Amino acid sequence: QVQLVESGGGLVQPGGSLRLSCAASRIINNINVMGWYRQAPGKQREFVASIGSGGNTNYVDSVKGRFTISRDNAKNTVFMQMNSLKPEDTAVYYCEIVAGRFTTSVYWGQGTQVTVSS
Question: Which of 75, 92, 103, 118 measures 20 to 30 Å from 28, CA to CA?
Fold first, then answer.
C-alpha cells in the first residue's frame, strides 16, 4: 500500500511563502501526473496545479504567477512553492499521483493545512 506524505503547511501572513512537499512511501513506477488540489471549508476540492512526466505544468488561473510546481522523479516527490499567499489560499492541500501504463492507479495524500491570515 503506497502512502503519500505531505509536509510544509502552516500559518503564514498574507504575502508570505510556503513550500509544500509530498513524498511516496515507496517507489511508484510509470508515474504520469503529479499534482496538488485544495479544499477550503464549505467548498469542493479544486485543482491547483499539475506536472506531467515530461515536465509540462498546468495551474488554476488564481495561482498563476504565484505558485510553482516541480517534481523529483528519482524520489517520487512533488513540490509546490507558494509565494504571495492570499487569505483565499487558505485550505487543506492534497497531493495526487496518477500512475500506470495499462491500468491507472490514483494515490492521494492525507492533506496539509495552509492558513493565510494576519
Answer: 92
Grid coordinates representing 24? 511516496
Among the listed residues 98, 94, 76, the one whose alpha carbon sits nearest the alpha carbon of residue 23: 76
| Nearest C-alpha neighbor of 88 from the set 28, 32, 43 | 43
Do residues 115 and 90 make contact, with C-beta atoms less than 8 angstroms apart?
A: yes
Could you report the per-residue pLDDT of 60-102, keeping only the tens digit for each?
999 999 999 999 988 899 999 999 999 999 999 999 999 998 8
Which of helix, strand or coil describes residue 80? Answer: strand
CA atoms within 13 A on the CB side of 105: 11
